[in-house]
Structures are given as C-alpha cells and as structure tokens.
Specification:
This protein is mainly α. 87% of the residues lie in helices and 0% in strands. Helix 1 runs antiparallel to helix 2 and helix 1 runs parallel beside helix 4.
Length: 100
C-alpha cells in the first residue's frame, strides 16, 4: 500500500468515525423527541438532520470508491465533508440541548 493509499484510508476512517459520532448524537436527539408531548416540529427538524446525515454517508461512500488520482483533486475542490460534519454535529448538539 502506498503512502497516498494510506492517507486516503486514514481520511475514510476519520469520516466513518465522524459518522458514528453523528449517529450517536442523532440517537440521543431522537430519544429526546420521544419524551416530548408535542414533538411534531422537533421530529420534522430531526428528519431534516437525518437527510443531511444521509448525504454525508453518500459522500463517504463515493470517496471510498474514488480512484486514487481523482481523490485528492475532488477533496481539495470540495474542501472535503469535514466542515459539513462539524456543522451537522453542532446542530444535533444544539437540538439535544433544547429538547433534553
């Protein structure tokens, strides 16, 4: 395995780790809405956040399948999904704080 392949593998592992963290936050947020009497607005917002998470999963899956020579160009051009993950995690944390 070349150092470039190892770098890609490291990034993919980090992406998957962040997805796991987001899944844990989502689970907490979902449990918080189950305890609310009138949770329709909260559940609607949670659905929006779940859709954003699904897009991040698609991004991770496409990065895994991307040829080595295209990977660097694609991640530099899009700045990678890291900022999006940070924003989504922050939104989930804010959601949890409001509803727990």
């Amino acid at each position: 395995m070349t150092s470039k392949e190892q770098l890609i593998e490291q990034h993919v592992h980090e992406y998957e780790s962040r997805l796991k963290h987001i899944d844990e936050l989502y689970q907490r947020a979902h449990q918080a809405t189950d305890q609310l009497d009138e949770a329709q607005d909260a559940k609607s917002r949670l659905s929006e956040l779940a859709a954003q998470r699904a897009l991040l999963q698609q991004t991770t899956d496409s990065i895994k399948r991307m040829p080595l020579d295209q990977w660097r160009e694609a991640t530099v051009r899009s700045a990678g999904p890291m900022a999006i993950w940070d924003i989504l995690a922050q939104q989930l944390e804010d959601f949890i704080e409001r509803h727990e």
